[in-house]
Amino acid sequence: MKAKLEVCVDSVESAVIAQKGGADRLEVCANLVIGGTTPGISQFKQIRKACDIELNVLIRPRFGDFLYTDAEFQMITEDILTFRELGADGIVAGCLLADGTLDTERLLKIRECAGNLHMTLHRAFDVCKDPGQALEASVSLGIDTILTSGQEENCMAGRELLQQLIVQAADKIEILAGGGVNAEVIEILKKEIGAYSFHMSGKQRLNSGMSYRNERVSMGLPGLSEFDIFRTELAQIQRAREAADKKF
Predict the structure, then answer these.
(1) Is 81 helix (H, G, I), strand (E, B) or coil?
(2) If pLDDT is split at 50, 70 and 90, which confidence band does 99 have?
(3) DSSP per-residue codes, 175-242
(4) pTM of structure
(5) Beta-carbon-side half-sphere exposure of residue 70 (alpha carbons within 13 Å)
(6) DSSP summary character for residue 173
């Protein structure tokens, strides 16, 4: 089976770099530094124009947990319909109930809104209570892919559960390994657990082009400089592509 490489991007520049490096598919989002949120419409349009590979759009109205208010869920469904009309190939979404189980009622509505688009259950899966049960529920809901680190901080730490999930999934659903993925991790997970789908950002930190800087003011997360730009690095994606294609 040919390994699949998905790259998560939050800018037009990163999207172009990821495609050039050999990505099979992009997850388009905003605000990767906080785990990603729903991208802007203009951002998506520019990426759609610049890239001719599959584009899956992250639908996440805010940072934080996946227990959404009615207003937030309304945003989720409306955004799915919008990006579907704009030419997205898939959507990436997820909802949980307060007890840590999948919100199957809302996920079914998401599946209906997505129509024939590819649907990925994002890392809400990684904070659910029972991953085995959640996998079976995902299959029954018609979800195509589960993005997961194996319920750990990164996929290397979670590789034991990832292996169990890959076996359980069989041909019913794709298990997309994410969290700390790079070329070396891809080689290890292919050999050790038979993983074949990988999700990464491959980002690097660039220095802002601003020459004048007021360092006293911070408008974002504590400890995060306003003069750091995060962008996908071509070499990281190329190495990951090589590792994904390598025969063992």
Answers:
(1) helix
(2) very high
(3) EEEESS--HHHHHHHHHHH---EEEE--EEEEE-S-SS--TT---SSTT--TTEEEEE-HHHHHHHHH
(4) 0.94
(5) 0
(6) S
